[in-house]
Structures are given as C-alpha cells and as structure tokens.
Amino acid sequence: MKAIIIEDEKRAQIYLKGVINQVAPEIEVVAICDDLPSGVLAIRKFQPEMVFLDIEMPKYNGLEIVNFFGKDEIQFNIIFTTAYNQYAIQAFKTSALDYLLKPIDPEELKETMERYKQKQLTTFHKLQVAKLSIAHTERIAIPDGNNLIMIEVNEILYLKADSNYTDIHLTNGKKYTTSRILKNFEETLSSYSQFFRCHKSYIINILHTLKFSRVNGGTIVLKNDVEIPISIEKTDTFLKAFKKIPRF
Question: Domain HTH LytTR-type: where (predicted)?
C-alpha cells in the first residue's frame, strides 16, 4: 500500500514515518512533501492509496486539497494529522473523515488502519463538508482597546475600510471597529475561501450573498439587504464562485 505524507515540520515528518513503519509495515511511504502544492504533484505521480495530510501549513491548509482535484479524482484515502481545536475535530467527526491528533499515538494510528481496511473513509463531498464546517467554527481575535473580541469567522458579514481602521459587521447586526487596516484582515482571512475582497474598501463573506446587480458598475447585495460595491475587474472572479443555470 503506497502512502504520501504532506507535513511542513521536519520533526513531524520523521516521527510520523517512524510510527507508520512501526505499526503498519504494509504501508510504503513513497513521498514526503513540505507543502500542499508539492503534495498534489506527488499524488498525481505516485497514485497512492493513502495520504497523511497536515491541516495547518503555510499558504495552503490541508482542506484546500479539494481545490486541486475534481470530485472523480480523489480516489485515495486521507487521514488528517492535526493539532486543531475541538470545534474542528467535531467537523471531522460530522463529515466521517478520519484524523489523528498530534502528537500522534501509535495505537490510534493502528486503529485507524484497521478501520481503513474495512471501508473507504474519504470522499470529495466529505472534504467539502469538513472544510465548510471548520469555516463555521473557527474564531479570530479582534483588537478592541485593551480587549480582544473573539468572533466566529462565519459570523462576519463584511468588513469595511475606514481610513486606518476597519469596521467589522456581523450577521447579528453588531459592528466592531478596530485599529487594523483592511489589508491586515485580507491576509488573515486568506485561508478562508468564503472571503473575497470585492472592492478596495470592502471584503465580503460570499456565503452571505443574496444577489448581484450589474447596475451602476456592479453591486453585491448581502442577506441583510446591505449593498456592497464591486470593482469591475473583480466581477468575473466573484461570479466564478457560483454555479449558473445554462441557457438551452
């Protein structure tokens, strides 16, 4: 059985490979990759039956593997290796995805391999569900004077630049103003695919989009009926996030 490890920490790579050799000698680790893009290339090259995939990696997180493969291409099984919090773990459980908490326990890996032998664990749909579930439960800390306000990522409706400040509008109608420029939030939220900078002054949560109008250069209407302008050069990219009904 061929396997690939995708993990950015060298010590974690060495440890995981050692544990695999110890408890599952039938697995041949054919490649160890430092990031998701190189892991994708290795998957296409070696066609493994199993991929051990870290979640927290620079630039791309592990769940973004769905952006590199079509639903019919993911024929391999994925076991996530993660130090994520309890909210993300619940997402994996709900999606029926398998995972190993760091530091990895050899006995847990052994049990995982036994489950693998009995049934296929991973599908494209399950990955998408887990990715969305984690987006619903992760939180970021917003500076507010001497305090930090903890906000669930998916409660963010949109963000608006206000000089050297940013207004954060939530789905419950609350608004927070923080001394961070919009560019800071664009970088922080870049790992969440639902956030889109549609204008120099706005970042929206696509999941809360209600409708789009090309009138007056382009406007996005969110679920609370707030109208957000969109730059002309961003329109095509925005519309690609939605499936359109074909004309016959």
Answer: 140-244
